[in-house]
Amino acid sequence: MQPATVIAAARFGFGRRPQDPEPADPRAWLAGQVAAPAPAPALPEGHPATLREIFALQAEDNETMRAGQGRPHQQRIWRAEAAAHLALAATEEAGFRERLVHFWANHFTVGRQKVPYTVGHFIRDAIRPHVTGRFEAMLLAVIRHPAMLAYLDNATSIGPDSRAGQRSGRGLNENLAREILELHTVTPAAGYTQADVGALARIITGWSFAPQREPFGFLFRPAAHEPGEKRLLGRTFPEGEAGGVEALAFLARHPATQRHLATKLARHFVADTPPPIAVRRIEAALRDSGGDLGAAARALVALPEAWDPPLSKLRPPTDYVLAVLRALAAPPAVAERAVGTLQYLGQPVWNARAPIGWPDAAAEWASPEAMLRRVEWANGLAARGAERDAAGLAEAVLGPLARPETLRAAARAGSAREALTLVVTSPEFHRR
C-alpha cells in the first residue's frame, strides 16, 4: 500500500477500514468525492425529519414540562441525530465530504444545550448540502436557520426604532452580528468597529422563525426590523430583508473572509501552524472561483504540504473515535454508544463551550488524562474485535506508516485484545 492511500483516508477522511479498496490515484479519488452526491444520515424510522415535526414535539415537551413531567422527546431527538451523524462518518467509504461536513459544522457552531431540538436539522439542512457549494449560500442558510437564530438570540432582537421596538421598549441583541463578523466571516483582521457590529445587528433585525405556523422556519418580521439604510464596513445597505441578504453576500465575498477561511482550512487539513503558501493557494482558489468551497477542497487536495509530512495532525476525540470504529469495522449501531464516549473523552457531540467551536490544535487535546481516557476506551472496544489479527489490521489501516516498534509490540502482546489495543493507541494511529 502506498503512503498516499493512508494519508488520503486519514487526513482527508476519518481513516481506513480493513475492507476499503486501495484507490489507484488517491488524489483523484479525493477530488472525485468533491463532485459526488452528498450522502444523507440514516435516521431511525419515525424520527421527526422536518422542522414542522420537530417543533410539534418541542411544543408537546413544553406542555409536559409545565405539568412537571419533563421533556420526553428532547434527548431522543438530538441523540438520534447525533448517532446518525457519527454512523455515517464511521461507515462511509468516501470520507472527504463527511470531514468537510464536520469542519463546517464546527465553523458555524451551535450548541445543543441551548437548541437541542433543532441542532441535528441544522447540520442536515444548513451545512450538509452546501459543503462543496458557494460559501455565501451556506452563510445565508446558516444565519436563517432557527438553530442559529435561537442560539445567538437574533430571533428576539428588535430594532429600537421599529414599530415593535417603540411599542414594547425592547431592543437590539448584537450576539449574532458580533459572531458573524468575528468568527464566521471577516474576523477582526478586517478592522471592523463596534459601530459595524451594531450596524449588522440592525440589518438583521426581524430575522426570526415561526415554530408554530408556516413556514415553520425562517420568517422575516417587518414590524421588528430597524428602518432606514445602514452602513457596514464602508458600504450602505437598504432596509428590509433584502438588505440583510445583500450584507451577508458582501461579507461572504470579502477578501478578509477568504483569508480567514483559507487559514482555517489549512490549519485543519495541513498543520496546526499552516504554511503561508498553503493559505495563499486556498485563498486564491476561493477568490478566483467566487467563494466556491468545492474549488477550495480541490485546492487542498492539490497542496504538496497536505501530503508531506504524513500524520502530522493530532486527532481530536471525535476523529480518534471514528478512526477506531472504522479500523475495527464497527457496525452503525455502535455509533449510538459513541455519543456517550465523546462526552467521556471531552468533545461532546455538538456541544462546544462557545460559538468559536472546538479547537484545532494538538495542545488542546494532548493532556495526559485525556490520552489515558482514550487508551481505556480503546481497550474496552478492542475486546469486541479480539478475533482480529493486529498485524493484519495495522497493515490494512496504516500500511507503510505503521512503525516497526508498534508491530513488534503487538507481536509480543499477551493477548489478541492487547495487541489490537497497542495498534489503535499507537502514536501513529493518534495522528492523521
Automatic annotation (TrEMBL):
One of the Pfam families matching this protein, by short name: DUF1800
Origin superkingdom: Bacteria
InterPro entries listed in its UniProt record: DUF1800
Protein name per UniProt: DUF1800 domain-containing protein
Origin species: Roseomonas nitratireducens
